[in-house]
Amino acid sequence: MSAFTIFLILIVIVAFLLVVVIMVQNPKGGGLSSSFGGGGTQQLGGVKKTGDFLDKSTWFLATALIILILASNLTIDSGSSIESKAYDADEAIDAPATLPTTNDDAVNLNDSIGG
């Protein structure tokens, strides 16, 4: 397994966690932090200020995602060439497009429409 594959798996995991953390939050203050009593100083399960925890975890995951994306870019092997099947520059230069020269080669639109 290459380093790029490992980074790609980590990026997917961090992106999923970031989506989950963002979905738990509510922009009007009605998310997870308000469902535990609404008080910013209330302590439940050892976590103080759940909103601050969610905010910090969002920033941490977003930063981790950016770092992982940049690190994965460094692991791509720049020596290997990726062949494009959509466009081949050599083939486009060697084989110019030709137009039909006789009426037999041309398509008659009236015949194909039925008119």
Describe the structure.
The protein is mostly helical and 115 residues long. It is 55% helix and 3% strand. It has a two-stranded antiparallel ribbon with strand order 1-2. Strand 1 and strand 2 (47-48) form a beta hairpin. Helix 1 runs antiparallel to helix 3 (50-75). The N and C termini lie far apart (62 Å). The mean pLDDT is 72. It is found in: Cell membrane. It comes from Winogradskyella pulchriflava.
Give the helix/strand layout:
Layout: H1 3-24, H2 32-35, E1 43-44, E2 47-48, H3 50-75, H4 89-94, H5 109-113
Antiparallel strand pairs: 1-2
Helix pairs in contact: 1-3
User: Mean pLDDT, nearest integer?
Assistant: 72
Radius of gyration: 29 Å
Q: Structural class, from helix and strand content?
A: mainly alpha
The amount of helix comes to 40-55%
Name the overall outline: elongated
Q: Would you count the extended β strands for me?
A: 2
Helical run tally: 5
Name the poorly predicted regions. Answer: none
Instruction: Give the SSE order as H and E letters.
Output: HHEEHHH
Share in β-strands: under 5%
Which oligomerization state do the chains in this entry correspond to?
single chain
Distance between the termini: 62 Å
Largest sheet: 2 strands, antiparallel
Please give the order of strands in the largest beta sheet: 1-2
